[in-house]
């Protein structure tokens, strides 16, 4: 799968860098200062190679959560870039983190005018952070909390945690906020979405598009918060018909979230 580039402003681009088997890492390039921040660089040399081509000085790395396929490159990265600041969550321990941030704080990328703010989104891991840029077109890096048309497994939290993380915390962002997630799971997620909302035209259109992207070797990120509200069942837990489809007869979004996750865990496309 190829590297793709998404502009956030006249001076800031996001480079989408596929790594491992199905992960996404990201390089946020501030062209005005020739600096770069990395997101979840589990294969750091791949991202540093992109930075070299861009003639960008990597000063910072952002870690969404402690799992090896997101934080596992931090120690090697620190050896390759000794002065790098590696940012992670104050609510959990992750390899190589030098700066631990709480939720709701803003942090300036070293050597850059770019500022990111933090949102705690517990469930997949209880200390999981998402990072939001202050750019003209805002972007949120969601790790394994929110995927295109899906969400992360509830490894450490419960359905109530994911309901809060997706449908309160992330849903409160502007609808045109770009979503850059941690894995290329989009086609499978949309096949599941179609199984629980067979009459949702947004799902059908996105699935057709995603299959074409993947067949062409092009990432399916970014999505947007507004689009996720249209086709991601985990951000549609208040839709009565969806609840009825998964066996929840009353208006109980947390129970819908729980039922969706259980059904998704057993889903085979």
UniProtKB/TrEMBL annotation:
Keyword check for Metal-binding, yes or no: yes
Q: Name one GO biological process term.
A: methylglyoxal catabolic process to D-lactate via S-lactoyl-glutathione
Q: What keywords are assigned to this protein?
A: Hydrolase, Metal-binding, Zinc
Domain of life of the organism in this record? Eukaryota
Which cofactor does the UniProt annotation name?
Zn(2+)
Instruction: List, alphabetically, the Pfam families matched.
Output: HAGH_C, Lactamase_B
Q: What is its EC number?
A: 3.1.2.6
- Give the pathway: Secondary metabolite metabolism; methylglyoxal degradation; (R)-lactate from methylglyoxal: step 2/2
InterPro entries given for it? Clx_II_MBL, HAGH_C, Hydroxyacylglutathione_Hdrlase, Metallo-B-lactamas, RibonucZ/Hydroxyglut_hydro
> What GO molecular function terms would the record report?
hydroxyacylglutathione hydrolase activity; metal ion binding
Q: Which reaction does it catalyse?
A: an S-(2-hydroxyacyl)glutathione + H2O = a 2-hydroxy carboxylate + glutathione + H(+)
Uppermost EC category? hydrolase
Among its keywords, does the record have Ribonucleoprotein? Answer: no
Instruction: Tell me where in this chain the Metallo-beta-lactamase domain is found.
Output: 22-183
Task: Tell me the protein family, please.
Answer: Belongs to the metallo-beta-lactamase superfamily. Glyoxalase II family.
Report the protein name in the record: hydroxyacylglutathione hydrolase
Question: What lineage, starting at the top, does this entry show?
Answer: Eukaryota, Rhodophyta, Florideophyceae, Rhodymeniophycidae, Gracilariales
């Amino acid at each position: 799968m190829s590297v793709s580039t998404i502009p956030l402003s006249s001076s800031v681009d996001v480079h989408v860098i596929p790594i491992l088997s199905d992960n996404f890492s990201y390089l946020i390039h501030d062209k005005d200062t020739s600096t770069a921040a990395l997101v979840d660089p589990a294969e750091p040399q791949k991202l540093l190679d992109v930075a070299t081509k861009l003639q960008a000085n990597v000063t910072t790395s952002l870690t969404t959560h402690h799992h090896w396929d997101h934080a596992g490159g931090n120690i090697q990265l620190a050896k390759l870039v000794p002065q790098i600041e590696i940012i992670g969550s104050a609510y959990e321990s992750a390899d190589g983190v030098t700066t631990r941030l709480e939720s709701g704080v803003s942090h300036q990328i070293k050597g850059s005018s770019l500022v990111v703010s933090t949102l705690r989104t517990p469930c997949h891991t209880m200390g999981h952070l998402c990072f939001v840029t202050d750019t003209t077109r805002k972007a949120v890096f969601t790790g394994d909390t929110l995927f295109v048309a899906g969400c992360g497994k509830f490894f450490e939290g419960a359905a109530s945690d994911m309901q809060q993380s997706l449908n309160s915390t992330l849903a409160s962002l502007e609808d045109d906020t770009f979503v850059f997630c941690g894995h290329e799971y989009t086609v499978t997620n949309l096949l599941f979405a179609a199984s629980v909302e067979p009459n949702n035209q947004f799902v059908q259109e996105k699935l057709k598009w995603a299959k074409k992207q993947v067949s062409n070797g092009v990432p399916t990120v970014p999505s947007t918060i507004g689009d996720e509200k249209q086709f991601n069942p985990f951000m549609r837990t208040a839709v009565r018909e969806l609840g009825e489809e998964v066996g929840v007869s009353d208006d109980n979004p947390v129970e819908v979230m729980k039922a969706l996750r259980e059904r998704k865990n057993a889903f085979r496309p």
